[in-house]
Amino acid sequence: MKSFFISDNHDTWVGLRLAGIEGVLLHEREEVLETLKKVTLNPDVGIIILTEKIADLAPDVIMEYKMKNKKPLIIEIPDRHGTTRGADVITSYIRDSVGIRI
């Protein structure tokens, strides 16, 4: 099972390439949506890694993939500049997804 990385940041893309993870460098919503569609149809890809800025280009589509599909797992990571999310991002994600306050 392979991982695939979609980045908007060249340095982050290079870092994951050095770690052996294939990926692409994109900046436009349409490119991201096209690539996501292609990669999710590949049975060899088990994990799709996105930078936070890429995820922000199509949050509705990415959340739909996360909620409706078991595979591939889609995760978001910060780029080399750090996170753009707040400190309570995990708590708010749980609250929004499950409906409980922790």
Describe what you observe in this structure.
By secondary structure, this protein is α/β, with parallel strands linked by helices. The chain contains five helices and four strands; from the N terminus they run βαβαβααβα. It has a four-stranded parallel beta sheet with strand order 2-1-3-4, with helices on both faces. It is globular and about 40 Å long.
| Span of the ends, CA to CA | 34 Å
Described by the principal axes of the CA atoms, the overall outline is globular
Tell me the number of helical segments per DSSP (H or I, 4 or more residues long): 5
Quaternary class: single chain
Radius of gyration: 14 Å
Number of strands: 4
Estimated share of beta-strand residues: 15-25%
Question: What spatial order of strands do you see in the largest sheet?
Answer: 2-1-3-4
Q: Could you tell me the mean pLDDT?
A: 85
Low-confidence stretches: none
Helix content: 40-55%
Secondary-structure-based class equals alpha/beta
**Tell me about the biggest sheet?**
4 strands, parallel
Listing every helix as H and every strand as E from the N terminus to the C terminus, the arrangement reads EHEHEHHEH
